[in-house]
Design goal:
The complex is a heterodimer of chains A (180) and B (247). Chain A is 41% helix and 23% strand. Chain A has five helices and six strands; from the N terminus they run H-E-H-E-H-E-E-E-E-H-H. In chain A, strand 5 and strand 6 form a beta hairpin. Chain A has two domains: 30 residues; 148 residues, no CATH class. The longest helix of chain A has 26 residues. The N and C termini of chain A lie far apart (78 Å). Chain A is α+β, with helices and mostly antiparallel strands and 180 residues long. In chain B, strand 7 and strand 8 form a beta hairpin. Chain B has 247 residues and is an alpha+beta fold. Chain B is elongated and about 100 Å long. In chain B, strands 5-4-3-2-14 form a five-stranded antiparallel beta sheet, with no helix packed on it. Chain B has a four-stranded antiparallel beta sheet with strand order 6-7-8-9, with no helix packed on it. Chain B folds into two domains: 95 residues, no CATH class; 133 residues, YVTN repeat-like/Quinoprotein amine dehydrogenase (Methylamine Dehydrogenase, Chain H, 7 Propeller), CATH 2.130.10. The chains are: A alpha+beta (180), B alpha+beta (247). Chains A and B meet through helix 1, helix 2 and strand 3 of A and strand 9 and helix 6 of B.
């Protein structure tokens, strides 16, 4: 009886990590599927109560330079749409994490980010930035004079590029709010 | 217990150790070599080296299925293939499957089922329209009428405003549907070249997935698991054979 128990102990000692390894390999085999968390129209509707008339900021050369300083490159479009209701403005912005665009919704109120939500995440890794524990770190942040964010979010191991992209987008939303 | 029994056990262990060792030799060697290479991927510059092999690119879904389709707008070719949209050889940053394209007031409007991108003469995207600016139900096609961009959705044609930000709908709106066609042989050749050059995978990633077995699907990771199990058994058998023989 003791020999059987001992034998099972040895087997389970080796089998358990092996099982974990198999699960890890199976889980990691998904290549690059995009995940839609919320449609942009639903985000704006939920953030502002309704979808107001669409407005757009057409970036001037000066604004383009400022945007380039924030993103390290030009924004993908020359005009950026926004939706304003009362003192709240919603932006739907996109930036590349590693190779794919992350579509994110921002609501800015009185120069501070009121809410952030990742709407579409297309990268195969780094999806942790869509979690509330991360996006909440960007709430109540504002833009400093040097166009840096007032409180940097903590990095997530394995999602560094996505964290950087999200931080850049938060800075961009705050900058555009001041330019509209 | 007779003295025959331990001897038989040792012979059994030795036989299994020998054969398992031979069978597992090549996979174990591969795991060791690839593991060593991956450990020095930075020094070897494996992150910068690219793999463009067709099989590898198809495996990573970098080479799309189906055929490329497109249409000519003047001397420009707008084409799409497997969720990617191109203007001549430039990849357009538009999500979705190509549905159509049309020239409007000096702009080029390119439509996918998810968005419409409006490009200027320098191929820069002026604005990207999504479900916040487009009718519900996705874009079916685009056209032009009276210097306005017309968008066809499931509910019929709508006319976009001059700034492309809003639309008005009227059941009387009509426009000519722009149809997409398969590219000719020369076009397909160019398309394959463009897509293949864009979809190259870093060598380090390919080796990592080959190391874990994922590159070869479930048989790959099953083989990796079996190799790992073999190593465990070999270790146990080795420990069993380690003590010196009595007498």
């Amino acid at each position: 009886m003791t020999r059987i128990t001992l034998g099972w102990d040895i087997v389970s000692r080796f089998v358990r990590p092996l099982f974990v390894l198999v699960l890890f390999l199976m889980g990691g085999s998904a290549f690059g599927a995009s995940k839609v968390y919320q449609k942009p129209s639903e985000f704006v509707k939920s953030a502002l109560g309704s979808v107001p008339k669409t407005q757009a900021i057409r970036l001037t050369a000066h604004q383009q330079r400022a945007v380039k300083a924030i993103l390290g490159k030009n924004y993908k479009t020359r005009s950026v749409r926004h939706w304003t209701k009362g003192d709240k403005t919603a932006f739907i912005l996109e930036e590349i994490g590693k190779t794919e665009y992350i579509t994110t919704g921002f609501v800015v109120k009185k120069g501070q980010i009121e809410s952030v939500k990742v709407l579409v995440y297309r990268e195969s890794h780094g999806g942790e930035v869509a979690r509330k524990s991360f996006t909440n770190q960007l709430r109540k942040t504002s833009l400093q004079r040097n166009r840096r964010i007032s409180r940097k979010p903590r990095n997530i191991a394995g999602a560094t590029l996505s964290v950087r992209a999200m931080t850049k987008l938060a800075r961009l939303a705050l900058y555009l709010d001041g330019e509209k | 217990m007779s003295s025959e029994q331990p001897r038989r056990r040792r012979a059994f262990a030795r036989r299994w150790h020998r054969w398992l060792g031979v069978i597992a030799a090549i996979p174990v060697l591969w795991l060791c070599v690839s593991g060593l290479i991956l450990n020095h991927a930075d020094h070897l510059g494996l992150h910068d080296q690219e793999v463009k092999n067709e099989w590898v690119l198809r495996h990573y879904r970098q080479l799309p299925d189906g055929e490329p389709v497109g249409l000519r707008i003047g001397d420009r070719l707008v084409w799409g293939w497997g969720g990617m949209v191109f203007l001549d050889e430039k990849l357009l940053e538009l999500p979705g499957e190509l549905k159509g394209a049309v020239a409007v007031r000096g702009y080029l409007a390119v439509a996918t089922d998810e968005a419409v991108g409006v490009f200027d003469g320098m191929d820069e995207m002026e604005i990207q329209l999504d479900d916040l600016s487009l009718p519900e139900g996705g874009v079916v096609s685009v056209s032009e009428s009276d210097d306005h961009l017309m968008v066809l959705s499931e509910g019929g044609w709508v006319r976009m405003s001059e700034e492309f930000l809003d639309y008005e709908s009227d059941h009387l709106f009509q426009a000519k549907v722009v149809s997409l066609r398969g590219l000719d042989d020369a076009g397909v050749e160019v398309a394959e070249k463009v897509v293949q050059s864009r979809g190259a995978m870093p060598l380090s990633r390919v080796i990592l997935d080959a190391h874990s077995g994922r590159l070869f699907g479930w048989p790959g990771w099953l083989m990796t698991d079996l190799t790992a199990v073999s190593l465990i058994v070999l270790t146990l058998l080795g420990l069993r054979l380690f003590p010196k023989r009595k007498g």
